[in-house]
Amino acid sequence: MQTFRQLGQADQTINKSRFIARAGRCENERELALFLRQFASEHQSAGHLAYAFRMKTAEGIVARFSDAGEPAGTAGKPIQQMLDGQNYVNCCVAVIRYYGGINLGTGGLVRAYGGTAKQAMDQAGTIPFVEMVHLKISTTYKRVDELTREVQKLHGEVLDKQFDEAVHFLLKLPIDAAKHLQSKY
């Protein structure tokens, strides 16, 4: 499995219709909704916002698409097929269309949406997908700096710290690193 390295964007005009694509990472449905809402707010006068996404959840891979009022299977589906074919996870690709007055036909729409999405995906680049987990660890005040350095070394993230007799961390770590860190603290 793989995911996007960074945010990717593409813009092309086909028969007077302008297609703008954005490819990005979305770890959950909240991030997906924010991604789509932000993209739509930047292009409020656009006629269509087609998208597709794939996410790894506790229930497995969830994948969906929207044709956004275009003929069935001509906008979101070609984007979804690219995500599925390359085994992307925790990713979303959205394509905005400003209608230019010329009908493209079903084949033209598939090529336009799919081609613009592919350009954005190529610009986003890929990295291997690493499954992350949340982990709670408590430690003494003396070991706070040591734990913080270790989390950074393992490419994790400190989400929260609570202080009382001990220091309680909420961490986001790669699943393999979490097992290692848990045995150490």
UniProtKB/TrEMBL annotation:
Family: Belongs to the IMPACT family.
PANTHER family: IMPACT FAMILY MEMBER YIGZ (PTHR16301:SF20), IMPACT-RELATED (PTHR16301)
Record domain Impact N-terminal: where: 16-120
A Pfam match: Impact_N
Origin species: Methylophilus flavus
SUPFAM superfamilies: EF-G C-terminal domain-like, Ribosomal protein S5 domain 2-like
Protein name: IMPACT family protein
